[in-house]
Amino acid sequence: MSERPGDAYLEYVRARLPVFQRLAYMLCQDRDRADDLVQDSLERLYLKWDKADDARNTDAYARQMLVRVFLSERRTPWARRVVLVDRFPDAAGAAGPGTAATLAVRAALAQLPPRQRAVLVLRFFSDLPVDEVAETLGCSPGTVKSQTSKGLAALRRALPDFETTAPAGLGTRS
Predict the structure, then answer these.
(1) Which molecular-function annotations from GO does this UniProt entry contain (predicted)?
(2) What span, in angstroms and rounded, lies between the C-alpha atoms of 119 and 2?
(3) pLDDT tens by residue, 16-52
(4) E strand intervals along the chain
(5) In a domain, 93, yes or no
(6) Does 16 fall in a domain?
(7) Of the residues 28, 46, 78, the one at which a domain ends
């Protein structure tokens, strides 16, 4: 029996959806916006699935689409919408160890410019090397390094009481 045209796409999305949802949430810090971001980028991925499926790294191709949708969304009038409430509370019982620290880091991360935030999320949350972040964002490795440095400095200023030592391996990327 032959495979239907969309089967490979559906299989890919089912396997990678949680990864893309986490990445989108880390970029925009809002579950609803993250869902919209994932939906928009997966729609674009579907329209270009033949090209993506032929790419040497489908994950990199899809991740690049998601990050670029996030960055371009920030430039549109839709991103300038009025917020009627500060935040809806997260689900009850979601608190756990490190929650205060996690919330503080997320709040500080949300204050960074979108491109700087994208660099830090891709470098340290997605654990990508400089060259792959540069390719994803369409910029030079030097730009990624400078944005990483500026973003980390801004986080250090925003979170002065946090431990300043990096986890093992965090400062060893080039």
Answers:
(1) DNA binding; sigma factor activity
(2) 41
(3) 999 999 999 999 999 999 999 999 999 999 999 988 8
(4) none
(5) no
(6) yes
(7) 78
